[in-house]
Amino acid sequence: MASIRDVAAAAGVSIKTVSRVVNKAPNVSEDLRSRVSGAIERLGYRPNQSARRLAGGRSFMLAFLYNNPTPGYTSALQVGAANRCRELGYHLVVEPMPLDGPERFEILDRLVAALRPDGVFLAPPLSDDKALLQHLSELNLSCARLAGSIMAESFNIPTPERAAGRMIADHLIELGHRRIGVITPPAGHRAAQARVEGFRDGLSAATGLALDPTFVAGDFDFASGEQAAGQLLAQDPPPTAIFATNDAMALGVMTCAHRRGLRVPADLSIVGFDDTSASATTWPPLTTVRQPLEEMGRALVDALVGDVDEAPEFRFELVRRESTGPAPAR
């Protein structure tokens, strides 16, 4: 394996100059940077991370903290972040966190003491955990978060949750649905609550229509979706469509419908959110909203270690599949 001395000899520069290029130090001429980068590429040189850590005071480690019962959502973010870390010479550590209690601070303190990460990024609902964000600030840790809705000393990447909720309402109304059930997310999940607000926007915009929505709380897992669907379908008359604010709950709705002998979508249309892998493999395939989760994971890493001034804008897409259709005539 090539050493830093080999790179310096090949580029005709000092070892110190190679180190400055590797660590992206300022005030290095483009000519020197190009020569050193070319030598690194030709020789296949891989910087010694321990030496870089000592020289630059960095660990080249990032931490992803999460609390989300939907594995597909978290794993897609993690894949995008891990791939971007690899490209930038960083490593990723992933840590589940409780939503409340002092235990989460103890977990964070142990992580920082052991690994000294250069930064931390958060996914909802931790993005709006005021106490956790304050603790990160006290630790002087760089922080990036996804879909945060509160003010905090961190880089926030917004997501169009509300606009996506509006798309779902428009889709169901266009299909002729007037009695619609909505399974809402856990109360602390503010990003997902915006999906409900957007859905309400769509209902409010549909002037002249006799709409009859019913809202039931869910817990972002399959069981709560199935239970909430049971409550909704026990109504007289029952809804002709149900919007569950994530795919896991939507799959619970589908199971409940099948057990009751309902045809999807002939008797009941179902919409989810996230476009997890299960949404395309269930029967019928689930209409849902696709988030570019891997791109979002990459953007969180760039926000921590890259030269990013403005948050990127992401587009959510309504994926129309066979779980939605025209409202039945009743």
Helix content: 40-55%
Content-based structural category: alpha/beta
C-alpha Rg, in Å?
A: 24 Å
Q: What do the pLDDT scores average to? A: 90
Question: Strand content of the residues, in percent?
Answer: 5-15%
The major sheet is characterized as: 5 strands, parallel
Rounded to the nearest angstrom, the distance between the terminal CA atoms is: 74 Å
Strand order of the largest sheet: 2-1-3-4-5
Which segments are poorly predicted (pLDDT under 50) over 5 or more consecutive residues? none
Write down the overall geometry.
elongated
Give the SSE order as H and E letters.
Answer: HHHHEHEHEHEEHEHEHEHEHEHE
Number of helices: 13
Q: Kindly state the number of beta strands.
A: 11
Task: Tell me what the structure shows.
- The structure is a single chain.
- It contains 13 helices and eleven strands.
- It is α/β, with parallel strands linked by helices and 330 residues long.
- The model has no long low-confidence stretch (mean pLDDT 90).
- The protein is 46% helix and 15% strand.
- α5 crosses α13 and α10 packs across α11.
Q: Characteristics of this structure?
A:
4-stranded parallel beta sheet, alpha/beta, elongated, 5-stranded parallel beta sheet, 330 residues, 13 helices, 46% helix
Brief write-up:
Helix 2 crosses helix 3. This protein has 13 helices and eleven strands. The mean pLDDT is 90.
Topology of this protein?
Layout: H1 4-11, H2 15-22, H3 30-43, H4 49-56, E1 61-66, H5 71-88, E2 91-96, H6 103-115, E3 119-122, H7 130-138, E4 142-146, E5 155-157, H8 161-174, E6 179-184, H9 190-205, E7 212-217, H10 222-233, E8 241-244, H11 247-259, E9 269-271, H12 277-281, E10 288-290, H13 293-305, E11 317-319
Parallel strand pairs: 1-2, 1-3, 3-4, 4-5, 6-7, 6-8, 8-9
Antiparallel strand pairs: 10-11
Helix pairs in contact: 1-2, 1-3, 2-3, 5-13, 8-9, 10-11
